[in-house]
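Lecture 7 notes: from sequence to structure.

We start with a single chain of 247 residues. Read the sequence below before looking at the structure.
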Amino acid sequence: MSNVIFGFHPVREALRHRAHAAREVLVSAKPGKRVSEIESLAARHGVALRRLSEPELREQAGPAHNGFALLLSERADERSGVGAPGRRVGDADFVVLMEDIQDPRNLGALLRVFEGSGVGRVLLRDRGSAPLNEAASKTAAGADQWIEVERVVNSAQEITRLKDAGYWVYGCDAEGLPPWEIDLTGPVLICLGGEHKGLRPRTRDLCDGLIGLPMRGHVESLNVSTAASAILYEAVRQRMGGSLDRV
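Now the structure, written as tokens:
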């Protein structure tokens, strides 16, 4: 189903952002506000809309369709709409690198955080990472239609290139300083490691510093997308309203 986008939010954002790639909208949901919005968007962009029964739509889009699916044209991006080529949003000096994120749902949740916090560039180490598939798109809830993901082969090379360009590089790690003690304004690259082993040793060594979140309860750590939310929104706070001395 590489040419199918499913779920209300992903379908809505696909129609808003790249309706030119849409071939047909499929709907099994009962009439209501969401159906009316999708109908309006489809009509506005001249995209055909077909009503199906729930079993028929499940056969086309899988069990998690939530009543909505969109068929992409054969020429559409093979990544199921994750990041239209050339699309630039957010702060160009606010960059994130991900490596070894193995759960597509975590990947989708991270894309949602990145888009919401205004990250301008997202790098994904291709080897060892989850695919940008339907599960990732579903969890991203439409954010994948607005943010471009650049696949990279070597994390160390990208980090070195950005450091040479004047970026400060910080890795997310439980042993790091709280984000509010680090200056996250200006050109910044934030590196996120995998769910199980965290940052790769070489990536960790190349960082100018480490960012962690103090845990005051009984659990030892947070989910990677939850931790990323806290760290990135501290960066948003600083970038919108002030700076700190470099640590």
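The two ends are 48 Å apart (CA to CA). Keep this in mind for problem set 3.
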